[in-house]
Amino acid sequence: MLIAPLLVAMAYSDLNHMRIPNVLCLIALAVFGLAALIAPPDDLVARIVVAGSVFALGFAAFCLRILGGGDVKMLSALLLFVPVPTMPLFALVFSASMLAGIAIVLGLRRLPAAHRLGWKSISGSTGFPMGLSIAMAGLLHPAAAMLIDAERILQ
Q1: pTM higher than 0.85 for the full model?
Q2: Per-residue model confidence as pLDDT tens digits over 122-139
Q3: Which region, left, alpha or beta, applies to residue 118 given φ > 0 means left and ψ of -120 to 50 means alpha?
């Protein structure tokens, strides 16, 4: 939840401009670096390996024009904050967020009132603002992890 404000700003920027500013990715990396210095997670190396792998695969997808550069950078940065044991849960939450994000954007594109916002992702037939789904996944993952832990405790 340390980067929740960054995720909200990223979603807004991607919806409005179809662009994720590099500064948001850099701030996320800085926050992770500071947090890792203060209280390094047990799985620090594994998190870095996962984030680096996603970045490498994402870069290939960027070169093929499948993903945007900001999407790749921010998803990689976000994965630094995800504990390795909960990565499968994050994948599930991210998949659901992708579907929800597509539904939201397609729904907004059909609403005349939404076009008055002037957001590039809504007004044009441009691509999909994946920053919305990345932000939803980043915000929902901690809640999903807590719910699963609470269910285990209650059993």
Answers
A1: yes
A2: 987 678 999 999 999 999
A3: left
